[in-house]
Structures are given as structure tokens and as C-alpha cells.
Predict the structure.
Amino acid sequence: MSERTYPADSREARVVEVLRTCFDPEIPVNIYELGLIYDVCCRDEHTVDITMTLTSPACPVAGSLPPEIEDRVRAEVEGVEHVHVEVVWDPPWSIDMMSEAAKLQLGMM
């Protein structure tokens, strides 16, 4: 999956900056570089929708990671009051969704 890019000065880009500070505790790579984030959509200046997946349905952070993301984006992106994180399973995550930097960091290249 190719990494989605957002205009540098956009609210979506600011959300991505925050997502790059969120980590799966079992993998030392941020969730954005892991390819877990499928879409970031700012509906208006106060509402952000994030579509994401997890490495597997049995992921131990399935219950804690989405609320952590909601809290961090709300706290760190000025003006955002509502964050909705939707976890989806299609398309299923695979290592092909990881960025080149993530693969290098994990010794997969």
C-alpha cells in the first residue's frame, strides 16, 4: 500500500504528525509507518475521522490503541474536539503496507 500524503500545512498533516508518535508496544515503529492508518479525514475544523487497522484481530492493544489515538489527536491538534477512530479489517494488514523506513528499522530489507 502506498503511503498517503497530505498538504504540508493541512490539518490532516498535523494529525499524521501526532500519529507518528503512537506506537504498537510490541513493535518499535510508529503506527503510521507500520501502515496501520488507512485514512485521515478532517470533516470540519473540529472533527477528525481516522480509518485504521491492526496487525491482527487478536492484537493485544485492540481495545486500548484506538482510544489512545483519539485522546492524543484531540489533545495535540489545535481546535479538534471530536475524533472518531474506525478499525477495519479490509484490506487486511500485511508487511507490504509498511513504509520502506519501517522495514529498514525492523531489518526487513
User: Anything to note?
Assistant: The two ends are 17 Å apart (CA to CA).
